[in-house]
């Protein structure tokens, strides 16, 4: 009579769990990177506003030195350089989740997208590793080794 109560509980497949986990972690990392980028812009703006026309030159220099020392002590530069790394990890997680999803839907599309993604990730990996091998490599970045 009541078939709703008699139905077995829903159990998601392993691929569905992987896809959702990768997509949502990617989303969280992307949003975290966006927020950190906004915060970093605000930090930089405050850091640069040390030369007040209303204050004495000595006071301006003291404010600038205080901000510089705090910037170094709190390691703000490392925090700012982590933003691109967050976006890179988010993108990789998203691409892996997309590939898993495509393999559950259509093999031909999955093969094409997997090949394109692998080629793209190979190029990005090369740009990350090349500065280690060649000191004068122009592809140096904070996320490169």
Automatic annotation (TrEMBL):
Record keywords, A-Z: Membrane, Transmembrane, Transmembrane helix
Domain of life of the organism encoding this protein: Eukaryota
Transmembrane helix recorded as keyword: yes
Ranges annotated as spanning the membrane: 20-40, 74-102, 108-134
Pfam families, sorted: DUF6535 (PF20153)
Record flagged with keyword Nucleotide-binding: no
Residues annotated as domain DUF6535: 5-104
Name assigned to this protein: DUF6535 domain-containing protein
Organism this protein belongs to: Phanerochaete carnosa (strain HHB-10118-sp) (White-rot fungus)
Classification of source organism: Eukaryota, Fungi, Dikarya, Basidiomycota, Agaricomycotina
């Amino acid at each position: 009579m009541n078939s709703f109560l008699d139905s077995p509980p829903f159990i998601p497949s392993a691929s569905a769990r992987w896809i959702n986990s990768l997509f949502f972690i990617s989303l969280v990392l992307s949003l975290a990177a966006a927020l950190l980028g906004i915060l970093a812009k605000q930090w930089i703006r405050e850091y640069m506003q040390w030369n007040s026309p209303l204050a004495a030159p000595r006071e301006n220099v003291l404010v600038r030195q205080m901000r510089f020392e705090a910037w170094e002590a709190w390691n703000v530069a490392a925090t700012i350089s982590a933003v691109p790394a967050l976006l890179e990890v988010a993108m990789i997680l998203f691409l892996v989740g997309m590939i898993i999803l495509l393999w559950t839907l259509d093999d031909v599309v999955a093969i094409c997208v997997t090949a394109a993604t692998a080629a793209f990730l190979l190029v990005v990996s090369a740009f990350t590793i090349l500065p280690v091998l060649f000191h004068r490599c122009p592809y140096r970045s904070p996320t490169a080794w």
